[in-house]
What we know:
The chain is α/β, with parallel strands linked by helices. It contains 13 helices and 14 strands. The protein has 2 domains: about 210 residues, Rossmann fold (3-Layer(aba) Sandwich), CATH 3.40.50; about 190 residues, Rossmann fold (3-Layer(aba) Sandwich).
Amino acid sequence: MPGSPPTAARRAPTHVLVVNQHGDNTGDEAAIRGMLDGLAEQIGDARFTVLHQFRERSSEVDTGHDVRWIPLVLPPLEAVRLVLYSLLQLLGVRSRALLGTTGRAVVDAYDTADLVVSAPGGPYFGDPYWSHEPVHWFYVWLARWRRLPTALYAPSTGPFRKRLLNPLRRLTYRCFDVVTLREERSAEYLRELVGDDVGFEVTVDAALQQQVPPLDRDDWVVRTGHGGEPLGDRFLLVVSAIDFPYPGDPDPAARRRRYDEAIVAAVRRVVERAGGPDRVHVAFMPQLHSAQHTDVPYLTRLGRMLGDEASWEVVADSASSIVQRSRFAAADLVIAGRYHPAVFAVSAGVPVLCIPYEHKAAGLMEAAGQSAHVVDLDEVEASRLERAVDELFDRRDEVAKELAEVEPVLRARSRRTSELVAGLLQG
């Protein structure tokens, strides 16, 4: 039965190997926190090894669980040695001398694992990330070659228009004993790829297993000309935008400029509707936080475009997902140009205007009953976002009630993923 305690025949603690964890991104951190909490609740005594794509060691967060972090992106020579070792092992030959230091750690993790879980995240099986998709296949294949129980933990997936890759994609999906996806739009893509050959269940984002209370407004200090003062009763708008590259567009620079102008126009409309500059504070919230990839310079540029039309700040990108979520939960309204900020708002019952750049965010809003407050990336213009702000602002009390009603349903659906995955340990 899914969610039952592990049997006495299995050694304790149960070793769960998590592969394909995404990179230095606060949203992906929130998803793995939710997953680890959910699995630990279902399994009981558990330890975790996580194969990750972090660019910086500082991204190895304290989750409150027994976690060992190992990079899954290896130096080229060491990667070749790991692949060669794995192919020889299929032939019955084990030669650890082939392996480098990290390769040995990876092999040891598989050799001692009771369960392998491919992590929650974006569509790492699918065209948006096709160039490094084979890396993710490989770590799933390693689990199947060892006949370990293997689960896909509610990522997005698809689309699958690069047809030359589809046979290997179908092979990879057949490696899983449990497949869950986090929204219906991904389910449509998977049905097109595999038909009825692979069973799966649609749940929802792993981060929704956690609830984070709002930050006390007296603890949120707003910088002023006199130093700083508590946020108090100001209207709080939280904004998380994306510097989207518009690949394939004939004039991506112009499209990016229009997007930025539209976001700032939407912020100005919120300021106007909420009582003016003296009554509103705008918090730009970064999601990427490595030295190579950070949202801070981009969000700072948006803030400077806003100028002195409202008090504003860019929240430090060093804040953990828990700290970030407490700030989203304190907001009166959220503009989400990234996926997990929409998740954080929905989880906290905060009205959110969502501007998806991939199908995952639109799918989340559909699951939350908020499709009316979605503006597709291709529709982003200043006038369109201003109208969307007006529509949401006029309904914000009603929307907050709708989200309060749907949040327990979504939390239960997210916990369902953990139940299904933990159930593999009873096999």
